[in-house]
Specification:
The complex is a heterodimer. Chain A is an all-alpha fold. Chain A is 80% helix and 0% strand. Chain A has helices at residues 4-11, 14-21, 25-51, 61-89, 91-96, 100-115, 117-123, 129-153. In chain A, helix 2 (14-21) packs across helix 4 and helix 3 runs antiparallel to helix 4 (61-89). The model of chain A has no long low-confidence stretch (mean pLDDT 96). In chain B, 76% of the residues lie in helices and 0% in strands. By secondary structure, chain B is mainly α. Classes of the chains: A mainly alpha, B mainly alpha. The interface between A and B is large, with 39 and 36 residues.
Amino acid sequence: MNLQPFLEWTRDMPVAVTIRHSGWMLPAIESAHLLGYAGIIGTVVAIDFRILNIGLRRQTAEQIAAQLAPWTAASLGLSVVTGALLFSYKPFQFAKNGAFPYKLTLAAMAIVFHYAALRWAVRTNSAPPPAKFLAACSLTLWLAVALAGMAVSLELF
Amino acid sequence: MTSLHLARSLERSAFSAALRDSNWGFAILITVHVLALGMFLGTVMVVDLRLIRRAVIGTPISDYVGRLLPWTRGAFAALAVSGLLLFCTEAVKCYESTAFRLKIALILVAGVNIWIFHRKTYRGSPGQDSAPWDESAILPVRARLAGILSLLLWIGALTAGRAVGYNY
């Protein structure tokens, strides 16, 4: 698969050029990316810790998840949009970054897991062992996404 | 001896030099800092959203204080320790950075906001741990204000922190 035309197209997008020529937009977008990340971790932790019985306990996991759902979705949206903007800032470097495919794959897995497996776990209000296992998987997946993100930003691989 | 001298001698100390020169020192510290940030800011934002009635309204504040706050505190400890060590490696740059000073100022004000909330706003009548409005969906203006301030201050601290890396 030849990515060259896609990378060139991304690099030349007006928004990418604007970010590259601005001194403050890149740190601002990175901050927003971190804010989205914190929003995901916070809402996911509130839900998973409830299922694992180490967090909030006055409401069921289903109630907590339902009320936090718009914020999880908003945080995911913010992370994805700012992530795409960060990619457009230097697409060729990201394409060479060894950790980047792992980050993308893990993030996609974590999102799918959240809206498929965890949704089921949340509905089992008695939180049987399988639900607890899924909650632990959810936390591990998001931790892996964060670690891969750090590997990308530090260009470790 | 001025603060700048202090920052300079800290940066030149054998400890700081060892951190700077180690291959993995910075990578590990910044990774711990970002992981702790997710846990800290994440749990703080969930509580703030509760205070301003934007999420998990049915959960009493005491449930947060008893069950989620220990995690927030633990994350803050990791955030502070890793942050302090990162500061050692480039104390002069931080000292001279406007963004870094702003970040510290915002953290201090956020700390005062938390202190006021726990000491004054969220105080129960004698013999009670929690405020009478602990379980209410709509909280007093002071509590809502604490939530809004907390959100703004911590997001500001995050943004200022990121700006330090860009020599602001």
